[in-house]
Specification:
Layout lengths: L13 E7 L11 E6 L5 E3 L29 H25 L7 E5 L5 H10 L2 E5 L3 H11 L3 E2 L12 E7 L8 H11 E12 L4 H6 L13 E2 L2 H9 L3 E8 L2 H17 L6 H20 L6 E8 L11
Parallel strand pairs: 4-5, 4-7, 5-6, 7-8
Antiparallel strand pairs: 1-2, 2-3, 3-9, 8-11, 10-11
């Protein structure tokens, strides 16, 4: 395990915020610590597994972004895959609208592309030259074989990917990066002068994080290494010549987080989710969804549009 310095200030001074379980581990003990930097306010996991050890915590049979690798026919997995396919179109439309005025033959990079479904959908809609980055070799191989995508499996900061890219997508992937400063430096260099970064991140200051506490699945320890608010993300991005130009809540994640957080809470009490708990989770999820639509900072997850720093005006809605 390694202790973590704040990537914004370099300080090791922290305070523990909350102790959380690994939702994929059957013991469900709250054995991971989310700390807050005393100097910047950024929250991160500390201590955490080293980069060469973290792969052991991505269980193929349980980790949803890799669900395409599974050959199971259970109701839960089938329902998740159906919802995931339905969400692809929404995500792609949102990303392309947020990127705003892509050139006629754009270039797109997705960092943490998993099994490639979203990247393939973006390619289908735009005819773009697309590349993916995915450190899980099985997921990357699936994306290459199933969709014919070009995917590198080295970590982004060590990769030989060459830009510029008109659009760089980090859909729930930035929070997984060990060397986040090196990653942002690389991204800044790969981004075209008028290009856009679209990043989706769980929101630790959202209403559902407060509602579910240590059972909020957005903590997702030890896979989620950083937990950004708009302020801390802006502070870190600024160090690499980047600025947030728009942000909005992402409503579907409110339902996802409510259901899985409720299920985790029940499992930790050695109970099984049922119809009543499902209805309760849906009700809570809709409540968080509505609050996020009213005020972005209360949403379950936030989609950020980030550009080179000369694009400095910030809007709280994504087109």
């Amino acid at each position: 395990m390694e202790q973590v310095r704040c990537p914004i200030t370099g300080s090791r001074e922290t305070e523990a915020v909350i102790h959380v379980p690994d939702r994929l581990n059957d013991s469900h003990e709250a054995c991971w610590t989310v700390a807050r930097s005393s100097s910047s306010g950024l929250m991160f996991l500390s201590p955490r597994p080293e980069q060469d050890k973290i792969g052991a915590y991505y269980h193929e049979k349980e980790y949803e972004p890799h669900s395409s690798l599974r050959q199971t026919s259970g109701f839960r997995n089938a329902l998740y895959r159906l919802a995931r396919r339905a969400a692809l179109s929404w995500k792609a439309r949102l990303i392309l609208a947020a990127a705003d005025a892509l050139p006629s033959h754009p270039s797109i990079l997705e960092i943490g592309c998993a099994t490639g479904e979203l990247l393939q959908e973006l390619q289908r809609r735009t005819g773009a030259r697309v590349y993916g980055s995915e450190t899980d070799s099985k997921a990357a191989a699936y994306a290459c074989k199933r969709f014919g995508l070009q995917v590198v499996t080295t970590s982004l900061e060590k990769s030989s990917i060459e830009g510029p890219f008109d659009l760089i997508v980090l859909w729930h992937s930035l929070e997984h990066m060990h060397h986040i400063g090196e990653v942002l430096h690389k991204i800044s260099g790969l981004l075209a002068p008028e290009g856009s970064i679209v990043a989706a991140l769980p929101n630790p200051s959202g209403n559902d994080a407060k509602l579910f506490g240590e059972n909020w699945v957005g903590w997702d320890a030890p896979r989620h290494l950083y937990h950004f608010t708009p302020g801390t993300l802006a502070a870190l991005a600024a160090q690499y010549g980047l600025s947030i130009t728009a942000m909005n809540s992402y409503p579907p994640d409110a339902l996802y987080h409510a259901w899985h957080s409720t299920a985790l809470k029940l499992r930790r009490r050695e109970k099984h989710p049922g119809v009543r708990s499902a209805i309760g989770a849906a009700w809570q999820g809709f409540g968080v969804m509505l609050s996020g639509l009213r005020k972005t900072e209360q949403g379950s997850s936030i989609v950020y549009v980030i550009r080179h720093a000369r694009h400095s005006s910030v809007h709280t809605t994504v087109p």
